[in-house]
Design brief:
Rhomboid-like fold; two-stranded antiparallel ribbon; two-stranded antiparallel sheet; 13 helices; mainly alpha; 4 strands
Length: 305
């Protein structure tokens, strides 16, 4: 098991940014699913619904104020296998195209920017339109759809005539795909998945705005990336603050294992003693003049210590 986890971690580290985000989304989904399976097998209370309550994005503003982090966490959580399958399939395909025109930092920024914009569209719609008045307190949003739509929209603006091959639909230009996706989302704003479609529009608008502003020399993902950099720096500081400092020159392991620094020192000492003994034996047999310059220097250094 440990070997499998280690191999997965190595693969994760070697993946590009798109692969890393897919790994994270899939890992979250599988963890939730596994918790549900174990709870069911033991006839225990399933904690998944309670976990979802803390990470999904609520439409109700008061609930959102109590769980502000959900504007970010919701975009890494999926409600079903087909939900995550289609989102990750789209993220993989359009994420690779995105990388042809934009940087890794742009990908990170637009993923979060699109997800946040989609979440805000969802919350705003459910609190503005009377149609949702009776369900706003019980409506929640999950999934990476808004983030993915932001990526699709950004590449469609950057290269509108880029041709992609879609299952069942065949070849299609990116601008055509983006227009159809937005149009379908608009037509489904009053459907059962109205919240998801409002989020799609928010994500698509964020991607469009990013690409247009970048063409004019302004990167609107900078603020997202700067906040991420700040959060990482704060995490590192907290980690150093609560990490017990190690003694200089020593590396400790659990279970009473030897210090790696001591082990390396003893190995070098043993090797050096063997080399000096060899030099002394050579002097005994052939005299000092038989030594090479390197051997003379090594003997001098040893006698100087």
């Amino acid at each position: 098991m440990a070997r499998t986890i280690e191999n997965l971690w190595k693969r994760f580290c070697n993946e590009n940014i798109v692969g890393k985000y897919i790994y994270v989304n899939v890992a979250v989904y599988l963890t939730m699913a596994l918790i549900g399976v174990v709870a069911t097998l033991f006839d225990a209370l399933n904690p998944v619904n309670e976990i979802f309550r803390w990470v999904e994005l609520p439409a109700d503003v008061m609930q959102l104020l109590c769980r502000p982090w959900s504007i970010v966490t919701y975009m890494f959580v999926h409600g079903s296998f087909t939900h995550i399958l289609w989102n990750m399939f789209a993220l993989y395909g359009f994420g690779r195209i995105f990388q042809e025109f934009y940087s890794t930092r742009h990908f990170v920024g637009i993923y979060f920017l699109g997800g946040i914009a989609g979440g805000l569209f969802f919350v705003a719609a459910y609190n503005i339109f009377p149609h949702f008045e009776n369900v706003v307190q019980h409506s929640y949003l999950v999934g990476a759809s808004a983030a993915v739509l932001a990526i699709v929209s950004a590449v469609a603006v950057r290269s509108p005539n880029y041709v992609v091959n879609l299952m069942l639909l065949g070849q299609m230009r990116l601008k055509t795909l983006a227009i159809i996706t937005v149009a379908v989302s608009v037509l489904l704003l009053a459907s059962e998945n109205a919240g998801g479609n409002f989020a799609h529009l928010g994500g698509a608008m964020a991607g469009w705005l990013f690409a247009v502003r970048l063409n004019r020399g302004q990167d609107i993902t900078t603020i997202i990336n700067n906040l991420g950099d700040f959060a990482l720096k704060m995490f590192d500081k907290l980690k150093k603050m609560f990490t017990r400092p190690k003694r200089a020159g020593m590396s400790f392991t659990r279970g009473g294992a030897k210090h790696s620094a001591d082990h390396e020192y003893n190995a070098r000492k043993k090797e050096n003693e063997a080399a000096i003994n060899h030099i002394l034996e050579k002097i005994k047999k052939s005299g000092y003049s038989a030594l090479s310059d390197e051997e003379k220097k090594r003997l001098f250094d040893a006698s100087d210590k």
